[in-house]
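Workshop exercise sheet. Pairs work together: one partner reads the sequence aloud, the other fills in the structure field after running the prediction. Swap roles for the next sheet.
Pair: D.N. / O.F.
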Amino acid sequence: MRLGFAAFFVAVLGCHGAFAAEGAEAPDPWLGCWTRVYDAAHLAKHPGQKVTAMTLSIVARTPAGDADPGNYLAKVTAKLRNSPDTYASPDGARCSVLGAAKDRLACVMGGIFVGQFEVEPAGKSMKLAMHGDKEHLALVPGVETSAFIVLSPQNPEHALFVLPPAPAAACGRAPAAQP
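Structure field:
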């Protein structure tokens, strides 16, 4: 009898765990932090690449209406050759899910530094890509807006960046609370 009760109790707990796992939402794959520091060997092979390090942070945002699309905010920071400054997208970029498979984000920067780029998963990494004449990324060093740089596919070394996942602290955020 005790063995039967124990088996029943284990079965109930197992089912409850399965239902809890089914009901739990999967984490949003677009949210997170990705970063890459290019080593000397890579930079020697790519002398036209100005970027020595790049970080992409994507957080959720609530659009303020139809004229303010995008459920995500992407911030990009970069270090450049021969510069001690960190360059960043001042206000970030509003990003919307694209494609029939909803497999990429289209990101648009507003304000003074208009630009656009795409983000798509590459395994656990994220690819930040710029295609065509209309896509580019403007980055500013701190408050010195006149010293901005533009990364665009006109320089093939800046058309695609593959960034592996990084801890939230690499993007200047506190780690997410665990449930």
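Discussion prompt: The helical segments are 2-23, 40-45. What would you look at next?
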